[in-house]
Amino acid sequence: MDSIYFPPEAETFRQRTRRFLDEHVTPRLDTWEAERRIPREVWKLFARHELLGLHYPRAYGGRELPFFHSVAYLEELGRLGSGGFRGALSVHSYMATAYLHLAGDHQQKLAYLKPAVEGDMIAALAITEPQAGSDVSAIGCAARPAGDGYLISGTKAFVTNGMNADFLVTAARTADGPATATGSGTLSLFVIDAQAPGVTRSPVEKLGWHCSDTATVRFDDVRVDGGRLLGRKNSGFMWIMKAFQLERIAAAVLALGEADRALELARRHTRDRQVFGQALARHQVVRHRLAELMSHTEAARQLTYHAAWLHSRGKLAMSESAMAKLRATELAVDVTGQCLQLFGGHGYLEGTPIARLFRDTRLDTIAGGASEIMREIIADTEL
Ligand SMILES: Cc1cc2nc3c(=O)[nH]c(=O)nc-3n(C[C@H](O)[C@H](O)[C@H](O)COP(=O)(O)OP(=O)(O)OC[C@H]3O[C@@H](n4cnc5c(N)ncnc54)[C@H](O)[C@@H]3O)c2cc1C
Prior knowledge:
Layout: H1 8-24, H2 26-35, H3 41-48, H4 67-79, H5 83-103, H6 106-117, E1 123-126, E2 142-146, E3 149-160, E4 167-173, E5 187-193, E6 199-203, E7 214-225, E8 229-230, H7 236-272, E9 274-275, E10 278-279, H8 284-312, H9 318-342, H10 353-361, H11 371-382
Parallel strand pairs: 1-4
Antiparallel strand pairs: 2-3, 3-7, 4-5, 5-8, 6-7, 9-10
Helix pairs in contact: 1-4, 4-7, 5-6, 5-7, 7-8, 7-9, 7-10, 8-9, 9-10, 9-11
């Protein structure tokens, strides 16, 4: 569909990106899924095609392109139909490195953002903990002052790229008071080298997202100097809330790409599959179901583009980005499930694109802020 949000150059960029992904990623996805890994060279390959820093400043290797180039890129990543792949690449460019861009100083950006944009370093984001997911203010990982820096101790859960990462943007508590202090005013962000003494990483197996590596990361008195603190001490919660806007918009756009892919697969299948003497797609109940799903997808897309447009104009868009995340991710789960139904038993076979989409999109309504939390944010803002 034509859209007022995409200038012709963003559309051209989308087509180029799609061709790049079709050529370099799609043919290798099954292998990476089976091997449960994405080779490090992939980040380098994406960097050579200048895809890792579309929205970042040129000074740090980025392209400073308008935000809707990122929207097109993320939609195409989602359209690949692999949650693991799009998860790994989007966490790198739009989640972990976002904190360096927002809160980092020039030296920190040179040391971490630039190599990440150039594909020489892989980035991970370590906010969630075993006992603190939705409730960020319950984070217990502690950063105790030591010399000119800190000693960091605690455990982080579900870290995307956790095994492969070179650095982890980490939220830790810098309370001056007792070590048991909780709340949002005593969180700080640090960049921690993944190879630093005291960092232990262990992989976790998941229902889906097979090619993406996910890790539990333990910090045992990991020493970081003061130069690894991002932004001011105790300002972490504010940065997390800011970065979550982009994370939610990105999650919504990726989910739309996934819904598009499921619909594409279902349209092709229902045209080819003959039942009771005619193509499945000729049966009115099937045609209407697809028409309905396409309408819902377009509605979620317009809401998401609106949130992205507000974001691109520097607006906070708290409620709109939560609405977009809620609608688009719930939609992706629904669409992939309904499209799988149209494949009958063939959709339930391991290794089929629709089965992978069904499994992978299930995470969309949980990660990056679950649907229940999106509803809370909308209600808090609007009621
Ligand atoms: C594969 C994968 C990759 C991930 N990648 C990362 C990553 O790179 N970095 C990172 O930091 N995190 C990551 N996460 C963590 C993810 O963001 C969290 O799982 C998510 O925020 C939910 O937190 P939780 O799992 O602790 O669930 P909980 O917070 O325990 O919530 C459990 C359920 O209760 C609901 N709930 C919570 N609070 C309320 C409430 N007030 N009212 C009603 N319902 C509520 C939730 O919506 C959810 O349905 C990843 C997770 C997975 C599975």
